[in-house]
């Protein structure tokens, strides 16, 4: 039975946008594992209840069910050791874990503060009500206020990416000559923004823009083919 991956989408099932789902999708592509995408929406929690979670990604591999993007990456690496390695050894696994922790606590929250108000327009009515209610409770303010003044804040966001920029000015990918788990984890936040928001997080002349482009074009351009608000 083919691997199946529950992925968050909007009213358009092709518009997969969760950064955590993109981590899992890029990992499957890296491993060269055939899989089926199962579009999932915020209010379809019953579809993944057997996984013991109410969030995606959820990966189904035969009778095996795995949730949480990091757990999925580790499971794929350990379950398919004969396929291309995501980590390149235990040292690479530890470094990828650091990138995941940084993305979860620094990068993605900073991106959310710039783009979260763009997401409701991509959702159907039921999901839109759920998303606005839960995210406004999380932020403690209307979503429009969360992203207010974002054009003025964009340069500060870009400046904070300096460590990533310096690293990628020395090599094409975080993992070196070819991409690995750390690249997919960091890239997924930028892909999230690209799919849901017209705000150009990265300037065209930025080395990070070129790095993102290489990953958009990887695996036959799967990531670039997804409908996106930012076509830059």
Structure commentary:
By secondary structure, this protein is of the alpha+beta class. It has helices spanning 19-31, 69-79, 90-115, 125-139, 143-146, 150-159, 162-168, 181-196, 207-225; strands spanning 3-8, 35-40, 58-61, 64-67. It folds into two domains: 3-80, Glutaredoxin (3-Layer(aba) Sandwich); 90-217, Glutathione S-transferase Yfyf (Class Pi), Chain A, domain 2. It is globular. Keywords: Transferase.
The fraction of residues assigned to DSSP E strands is 5-15%
Second rung of CATH, namely the architecture of the largest domain: Up-down Bundle
Count of DSSP E strands? Answer: 4
Rg from alpha-carbon coordinates: 17 Å
User: How large is the count of helical segments?
Assistant: 9
CATH topology of the largest domain: the name is: Glutathione S-transferase Yfyf (Class Pi), Chain A, domain 2
- If strands are numbered along the chain, what order do they take across the biggest sheet? 2-1-3-4
Number of domains: 2
Largest sheet report: 4 strands, mixed
CATH first level of the largest domain: Mainly Alpha
Q: State the end-to-end CA separation.
A: 37 Å
| N-to-C SSE string, H for helix and E for strand | EHEEEHHHHHHHH
The coarse silhouette is globular
List the helices and strands and how they pair.
Elements: E1 3-8, H1 19-31, E2 35-40, E3 58-61, E4 64-67, H2 69-79, H3 90-115, H4 125-139, H5 143-146, H6 150-159, H7 162-168, H8 181-196, H9 207-225
Parallel strand pairs: 1-2
Antiparallel strand pairs: 1-3, 3-4
InterPro entries: Glutathione-S-Trfase_C_sf (IPR036282), Glutathione_S-Trfase_N (IPR004045), GST_UstS-like_C (IPR054416), Thioredoxin-like_sf (IPR036249)
GO molecular function: transferase activity
Domain GST N-terminal: 8-84
């Amino acid at each position: 039975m083919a691997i199946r991956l529950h992925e968050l989408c909007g009213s358009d099932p092709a518009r997969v946008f969760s950064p955590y789902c993109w981590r899992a999708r890029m990992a499957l592509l890296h491993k060269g594992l055939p899989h089926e995408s199962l579009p999932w929406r915020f209010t379809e929690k019953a579809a993944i209840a057997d996984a013991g979670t109410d969030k995606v990604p959820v990966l189904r591999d035969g009778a095996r069910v795995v949730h949480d993007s990091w757990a999925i990456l580790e499971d794929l690496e350990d379950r398919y050791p004969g396929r291309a390695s995501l980590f390149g050894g235990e040292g690479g696994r530890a470094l990828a874990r650091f990138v995941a922790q940084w993305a979860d606590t620094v990068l993605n929250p900073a991106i959310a503060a710039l783009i979260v108000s763009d997401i409701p327009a991509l959702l159907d009515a039921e999901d839109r009500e759920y998303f606005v209610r839960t995210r406004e409770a999380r932020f403690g303010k209307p979503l429009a206020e969360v992203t207010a003044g974002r054009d003025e804040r964009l340069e500060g966001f870009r400046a904070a990416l300096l460590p990533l920029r310096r690293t990628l000015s020395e090599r094409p990918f975080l993992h070196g000559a070819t991409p690995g788990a750390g690249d997919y984890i960091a890239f997924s936040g930028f892909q999230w923004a690209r799919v849901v928001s017209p705000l150009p997080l990265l300037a065209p002349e930025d080395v990070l823009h070129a790095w993102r482009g290489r990953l958009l074009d990887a695996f036959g351009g799967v990531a670039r083919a997804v409908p996106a608000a930012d076509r830059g």
